[in-house]
Specification:
Blueprint (H helix, E strand, L loop, with lengths): L2 H16 L1 E7 L3 E3 L6 E6 L3 H13 L20 H25 L15 H18 L3 H13 L18
Parallel strand pairs: 1-3
Antiparallel strand pairs: 2-3
Length: about 170
């Protein structure tokens, strides 16, 4: 699935109702809250996975967080080990939902530890997989389910709620 299709799906489902647009082409992903107008979810240039990841952030963020730039998170680029663990606590559920969106859209999912290189990704991958299983057991939020369903329909009705789709932890 191309990122342009993800944009169309997002805008059709959520654009007017939530006054938010999904926009490609940013050098770095960012959510820009606009109090009296359309907020913008920027994702990296022509990367479908970046779009899915940023929509996952948006789907998880509640109304208060959606009233803050980048959902109120402070991004530390050069993290120490403790900061990386904090990053992962926030990211595990986001990446779990991104994984669901990726399966629905028939797009490869790749676990991301971001720019932290001195790190074994497997334990984090297990946490993300566990978060996927929790999402599947508890049920997706209405926004997330609507988005995943629309992605699935776009690629021919791909099954994305079956746990078998999340058997292997996608680490590099």
């Amino acid at each position: 699935m191309e990122s342009a299709a993800v944009i169309v799906i997002f805008d059709q489902l959520f654009g007017e109702r939530y006054e938010t647009h999904l926009i490609e082409g940013a050098p770095e992903p960012f959510y820009h809250y606009v109090p009296k107008g359309y907020s913008k979810i920027f994702f990296r240039s022509d990367y479908t996975s970046s779009a899915l990841h940023e929509v996952a952030h948006w789907c998880i963020a509640g109304p208060n967080r959606r009233r803050e730039n980048d959902y109120g998170y402070f991004y530390v680029e050069d993290r120490n080990k403790e900061q990386q663990l904090q990053f992962q606590r926030v990211e595990r559920k986001v990446q779990a939902l991104e994984w669901v969106f990726s399966v629905a859209a028939n797009v490869p999912f790749e676990l991301s530890v971001d720019n932290f290189n001195d790190f074994d990704p497997l334990p984090f991958g297990r946490e993300v997989r566990l978060s996927v299983m929790t999402l599947l057991a508890d049920g997706l939020s209405q926004r997330a389910l609507s988005f995943a369903n629309a992605l699935s329909v776009e690629v021919g009705g791909r099954e994305f709620l079956a746990p078998i789709n999340y058997k292997l932890i996608p680490v590099r």
